[in-house]
Amino acid sequence: MASLKDVQNKISAVKKTKQITKAMNMVATSRLRGAQENMINFRPYAGKFSEVLGSLAEKSGDEAIPLLVNREEVRKIHVVLCTSDRGLCGGFNVNLIEKAQSFIKEKSEENIEISVTNFGKKGRDWCRTNKITIEEEKLGIVGTTFGFNVAAAAGRKLVEKYLAEDYDEVYVIYAEFISMGRQVPILKQLLPIPPIETGEDEESEGSEEYLAEHICEPSPEKLLGEMLPRNVHVQLHSALLETSTSEHAARMAAMDNATKACNDMVDDLTLLYNKARQATITAELMDIVGGAEALKG
Amino acid sequence: MAENIILEVVTPEKEVVNEPTQMVMAPGSMGEFGVLNGHTPFMTSLKTGTIRYKDESGNERYVFVSGGFAEALPEKVTVLAESAERRSDIDIERAQAAIERSEKRLSDERSKEKVDFIRARAALERAKQRVVLVGTRV
């Protein structure tokens, strides 16, 4: 049995760990609130944007716009992988990386070249160890408060390279924030822009009829040409926001679990400590009683 | 008096304006346009510039916008912009610093990549418009 001192040390160590996990939990909670707010503030813009874009796309003959057309032969694929910079958030990054791994494996079996843009350190490290071409890495963004310009700059680059035929398809992998307890890794095609679903929003019903008779300035095709690249920025920005929010939620849950586990451990160890203490007392008593008996005799 | 038309200006960061107005004037890419209640459905891209509108009580208000689109419907105008600020929210010092910075960049890097040049010029334009807007009389 462990000595009393050992158990005592162990208990204080676990208590210290608990302090840390509890603090991290609280930090994650407050950051989560901020991230969630950013996400909510972005929604009206994103919603409105896709609504307008959707009806516009329907209207114009979209053959002429290269961002919409699927390429016949796909040889080069680019993946934007969003992960967190830091660990201690449970299976969050593992899930995202697993998604990336299965996708990349599947595509490289078809002899398609893969390159990656990394948002977040964890994904970058993984790409490094697996010798996957990293085109660009952006650290210190996911999990912080960032402006739309981050996504705009990255999006602009993606569109440029896509048009220069450096990539034939572009995907993004990010963690969708479904609820506090659930974040799901999602793989989404960014380019060519998949057919835009209209009438996705229940609220936007009726807007299509309006748009049918819209006057457009300049022409619908030109407007679309301006809006589509921006759609990439919008998608990217929302992916980053979702990932950030998910990261904090995942960390919160992980730290909550860790704190609970610490509590359990402290309970178990305290029991052990008390048992050990009592055992020594009993042993001492036995000694005394034994000694007294011997003297009597 | 004519009925009001709702003006909504949203950016990725937040909703800047959402209120009933008497009239909206906006800088379309093919010329400035005004919208009153009952306007025919209309859609356009916007130049960097200023949206002017009259609020319910007839006061003229100004909002700086850049990189945006506007959709006008009979009862509502929606502006999607990459950045938008009410006149009172413009940081004049920052804008002035931006003017200096981009002017410097333009004179330094004329020979450099074209993309940077275009972007610097756009930045200069944005900053100038901000300063101009703050300078106008209410």
Describe the fold and architecture:
The complex is a heterodimer of chains A (297) and B (138). Chain A is of the alpha/beta class. Chain A has helices at 4-59, 92-109, 121-129, 148-163, 207-212, 220-296, and strands at residues 76-82, 113-119, 133-138, 169-179, 182-191, 215-217. Chain A has two domains: 4-19 and 257-291, Helix Hairpins (Orthogonal Bundle), CATH 1.10.287; 26-253, Pyruvate Kinase, Chain: A, domain 1, CATH 3.40.1380.10. Chain A has a five-stranded mixed β-sheet, sandwiched between helices. Chain B has 138 residues and is α+β, with helices and mostly antiparallel strands. Chain B folds into two domains: 5-88, F0F1 ATP synthase delta/epsilon subunit, N-terminal (ATP Synthase, domain 1); 90-135, Single alpha-helices involved in coiled-coils or other helix-helix interfaces (Up-down Bundle). In chain B, strand 5 (49-55) and strand 6 form a beta hairpin. Chain B is elongated, with a radius of gyration of 16 Å. The mean pLDDT of chain B is 84. The interface between A and B is medium-sized, with 27 and 21 residues.
